[in-house]
Amino acid sequence: MKVSFERISKKYKKKWVLKDFTSHLEYGIYGLLGENGAGKTTLINIFVGILKSDQGRILINGTDVKKIGIDFLSHIGYLPQYPQFYKEFKVMEFLRYMSVLKGIPKEQGEKRAKELLEMVNLSEAKDMKVGALSGGMRQRVGIAQAMLNDPDILILDEPTAGLDPQERIRFRNLITKFSKNRIVLLATHIVSDIEHVANQVILLKDGELLRQGAPQKLTDEIMGKVWSITATDDALEEMLHLKISSMMRDDQGIHLRVIADDKPNDHAVHVKPNLEDVFLYYSSEGEKW
Amino acid sequence: MVRLFFFEFRKHFMKKSLIIVMICFSLLNVAKIYSEYHEKSLLSSSANPDWHELYWGELYEKFKGVMTKQKIESLMSIYQPLEQQTADKTASTESNNPNTYTGNLYNDHLFFKWNFVDPMEYSYMYQQYANDVVKNANENLSFFESLGNDYEYKKNSIILDRFQGRSIDSFSYTEMFQYYIHYDFSAFLVILICLYALMSVFVTEKETEMDVLLLTTKAGGQKTIFAKLFSASIFVCAVSFWFGLIDFIAFASSFGSLEAKFSPIYAIENFADTALNISLGEYALISLMVKTIGFLIVSYLFLFVSLFFKNALLPFIISLFFAFGLIYFQEAYMGSERIILKVINPFSLVVHRMLFSGTEFVNIFGFPMLSYTAAICFGIICGGIFLLAIFIFQRKNTIYRIGVKQRGDMVV
After folding, report:
1. Nearest CA in chain A to B408
2. Contact assignment for B397 to A49 by CB distance below 8 Å
3. Are B50 and B228 within 8 A, CB to CB?
4. Which helix (H) or strand (E) holds B381?
5. Which of A6, A37, B199, B394 is deepest in the core (most CB within 10 A)?
């Protein structure tokens, strides 16, 4: 399975929200990383057919999605941003409904729904109403419905938004579990969501592709550009113009993690970059303090 | 598709709140019908217990059925003395007069006049009235033929056909049907229930953000819209028939009689000029069906309005505004001679007495179409337009929008 985005562009009024986005995806987890408004959801909406691109095309194994037509939908599983689902439906009933929508035969859908509920650890909750589920449980129902048709491409839009840390971890593990032999496109603005699970990271900014590569490759690219500085309260003021990714206070003073091409301070020492540093390095002008 | 329909029905119409509303409105409707009976019926068991007993206990049995000379003479032998005695208003007003049926002469006079003489006289005279109409229509036929006025010729030809051979041979108790036909409160309740229930059909998907997810599934596009519209139509029909059934049963049980079910519809005085040649029982059924068509059309309008909103409140208010607008429009043109203004209003199918009580025509490209036929045709066209508009304006997946569907083009 190979997905190719070729010069995908979308304009709202006079502003490009996606501009010449070109990328190629093969099996694995792809973290689509960008700030709010970077164009992640627009890209996903174009991919799943909710929005029409102004330019460009999407190819699946070399064939334009438009030519595949409605059958394309059988190959995708999609979890949208902030889904509420139907509060009055019971979990199993909801999955049955989604099976019908996806055109899965009754018995097959029933079997698959039970398997998935087992996998997402919601077997006990199958008779609970969706409205009574916690946010994390609801997201697990969400990924279960996305997996019902055993899709080749799993698309998750901000799936961990609003989840507590434990549910986030559980959800990340589920994504890894479901990534075998399929493409998972995971859009998020939370770096930790993809840091440990993504095979590739796609960095978006203002609708344009900044970088695409393995996390290790991206962090290697900014090797030598991440610094640690320990400062006193008095000296801190002078450093606030720098691109600071984190600050931590202890007995020795304030430890700053700074991203800069050149050594920002005589006392600055190199530290190993992480994905958050990459995000910060490419995405913004730095935190304004 | 069947399973999709059941899920849509379950999703939107099998809600606790809706069931509670249905139960409450049904009870309200029954209470209203019973109050109609007690307020309006001449034979109300609470308002006129003496009349009730006298009519059902003794006299109705005597005079019901085919109106024979013997029955008429028997009735007139009771009524004429009463009329003479009460004519100059000098008769005794005593209320315990043992020589009367109800204890009072005036009361007796009114009892016989309103319950037997007037209705029997109307029934007896109707044949003559119908014959006059036929005679006039015949004269008009010759007249318009000589003028070469094809439209008026056809119109009179239809009138002739409809009124020929009409007569009311039997006397029966028509009061139940009289009030049943003129009862509109349940229609108002059905409109309110439809308004409440239908607002969620499209809005729920937006409120729950499911609209986006639906579009990424094979059956989440047009099939789902079709399932929604079909389930909504079934719901509207079910509610309409449910209230129709309640109306009929409650009227029959409160008035205590279905005696006139085989009488012709023109046995009701307001329907003397009707173009229909059916019995009152058949009219009750047809009336329910026409009403249901009206509810469906109005419901499609509500659904269309709701398509453009993300929460239910605003479309509810706008739809309510439209509903009241249609009611006002109907009231305003009820007696108008501009028949077209009556028939283009889908609400005229909901409260359709005026369409059926007379013989009115709409000129459709030179052909005289009976107003109720025209109203049904306009209504169906109107409903079709709303349905089409829903399909057009409903958000679609770009794959559908492009409309390219080439199976077997590739193997993914």
Report:
1. A68
2. yes
3. no
4. helix B371-393
5. B199
- Cβ contacts (< 8 Å) between A96 and chain B: which residues? 7
Interface with A, mutate which of B200, B207, B213 (most A CBs under 10 A): B213
For the cut 60, the answer to whether the pLDDT of residue B404 exceeds it is no
List CB contacts (< 8 A) between B207 and chain A. Answer: 84
Is residue B189 a contact partner of residue B24, using CB atoms and an 8 Å limit?
A: no
Mean pLDDT of B1-24: 91
Cβ–Cβ below 8 Å for B15 and A88: yes
Reduced to 3 states (helix: H, G, I; strand: E, B; else coil), residue B337 is coil
Note whether B410 contacts A80, CB cutoff 8 Å: no
Residue B302's nearest CA partner among B314, B320, B319, B318 is B319
Query: What confidence score (pLDDT) does residue A52 get?
Result: 87
CB B112 within 8 A of CB B82: yes
> Cβ of B219 under 8 Å from any chain A Cβ?
yes
* Residue pair A23/A213 in contact by the 8 Å Cβ criterion: no
Structure tokens of B23?
């139960």
How far is A211 from chain B, CA to nearest CA, in Å? Answer: 28
Inter-CA distances, B384 with A66, B38, B229, B300, B372, Å: 30, 42, 12, 9, 18
In sequence order, the 6+-apart residues with CB closer than 8 A to the CB of B239 are: B22, B190, B193, B194, B197, B295
CA atoms of A32 and A197, how far apart (whole Å): 12
Predicted confidence at residue B399, as pLDDT, reads 64
User: Which of A8, A50, A85, A139 has the most B C-beta neighbours within 10 Å, making it the best mutation to test the interface with B?
Assistant: A50
pLDDT interval class at B408 (50, 70, 90): very low
Q: How close is the nearest chain B Cα to the Cα of A77, in Å?
A: 8
Instruction: Encode pLDDT of B278-327 as tens digits.
Output: 999 999 999 999 999 999 999 999 999 999 988 889 999 999 999 899 88
The tens digit of pLDDT for each residue in B221-274 reads 888 999 999 999 999 999 999 999 999 999 999 888 787 888 899 999 889 999
Q: How do strand A153-157 and strand A76-79 relate by DSSP bridges? A: parallel
Q: Round to whole Å and give the CA distance between B68 and A250.
A: 114
